[in-house]
Amino acid sequence: MNKLLLLIIVVFAVLLMSRLDVVQQAYKETFSEVSSTQGHHQEPGSRNSTSSELGSIWEALSNILTSDEELAEATQTSKHQELVEQYSAWLDSHMPAQREVILQIIKRDLQASRDQAFSLLMQPEKLDQIQEELAAFLKTENVRVYRAELTIRADSIRIAAQNPLQSDHIDWYEYHNSNAQYHKDKNQVWTKDEPIKLSQADVDALDYTLWPLSHIKFSAAATTYKNALLKIADIEEPKLPQAVHFHIDSSARQSDFIKEAEKARELGIRLIQYEEYLARSANLFKWSVNIDSVRADYRLETDANGKLIEFKRN
User: pLDDT digits over 137-166, tens only?
Assistant: First the structure.
């Protein structure tokens, strides 16, 4: 912004000086009695002198802008190197045998984006802290997650939760951890995003589609991600996984107790108690990661604590 303002000021000054020079020259040509010998003499305020001065101004401005660009480039290079060193240290600590292979994959990914910060998926303690901050943001200790909708990415978190002030309102909430300028005002804080549209049937079913946030451990996503990194070390030209998804086991959607809950809702009675329903469903939560590569795509699944359940080719 400062550079743009400086450029506008200088351009305006150049145009102003140029117009004054034209007026001054016209005045001299009309009213001054200049001898033929003087006609070849350039006075200090002549066009050539002014042009030379303007050229000096442009040159100085160019040097300023070039210096700023070089400084910004050097700063960016320094940050990039610091980030690479962070990843290298993390790999040394968590998976030294795969360090070189995975570090090369990470470096490729870093080249594609210069706005990256150190991945949230490698910071379990920070993830637990962010989870606590969501409860503080919503001003309730009983945060309830809608349909277990939760995605944790390297640079952000997105979750669907019930508005504690109005039970039939479900909204998306986001957390950003990026160096990008367009996230500057909402970086490293929770923000409310767009609402989720609900039908009357959705509202009636909320008792069976909301889970306490306490049943979810954000830090387990880091354990799941570590499992994924161990797998990509043996895959040909994989892309670095960017997200871990939390969900309910798809097979559980047709399980007997969910059918029982749906029947209870249709009849308007509780055939099972809500807490019992939650206790059963807690065992059906899973984390998953999709892994892309030049040869094939893969899917890795863990339980709610990040313990590996399955790794398969799609």
Answer: 999 999 999 988 899 999 999 999 999 999
Q: With both helix axes pointing from N to C terminus, report the angle between 99-112 and 47-94 in degrees, rounded to the nearest 10.
A: 150
Burial category of 264 from C-beta neighbours within 10 Å (exposed 0-12, middle 13-18, buried 19 and up): middle
Return the exposure string of 281-312: e unless at least 16 CB atoms fall within 10 Å of the residue's CB, then b: beebbbbbbbbbeeeeebebbbbbebebeebe
157 within 8 A of 120, measured Cβ to Cβ: yes
> What is the enclosing helix (H) or strand (E) of 69?
helix 47-94
In angstroms, how far apart are the furthest CA atoms of the chain?
A: 113
Cα separations (Å) of 228 from 47, 111, 127, 295, 301?
Answer: 70, 21, 18, 17, 9
With cut-offs at 50, 70 and 90, classify the pLDDT of residue 187: confident
Neighbours of 40 (CB within 10 A): 8
Q: Are 152 and 244 in contact (CB under 8 A)?
A: yes
**The pair of three-digit structure tokens given for residue 50, joined into one six-digit string:** 């002014």
Residue 258 has pLDDT above 80, yes or no: no
Give the relative orientation of helices 219-232 and 124-138 as an angle to the nearest 10 degrees: 140
Listed in sequence order, the residues at least 6 apart from 211 whose beta carbon sits closer than 8 Å to its beta carbon are 144, 145, 148, 278, 281, 282
| CA 71/CA 67 separation, integer angstroms | 6
Q: Is the pLDDT of residue 205 over 50?
A: yes
Could you give the 3-state DSSP secondary structure of residue 247?
strand
Copy the structure tokens of residue 218.
């954000």
The SS3 call for residue 272 is coil
Burial of 55 (0-12, 13-18, 19+ CB in 10 A): exposed
pTM for this predicted structure: 0.71
Query: What is the total residue count of the chain?
Result: 314
Can you tell me the distance from the alpha carbon of 143 to that of 185, in angstroms, rounded to the nearest whole number? 25
Cα gap 201→62, rounded to integer Å: 65
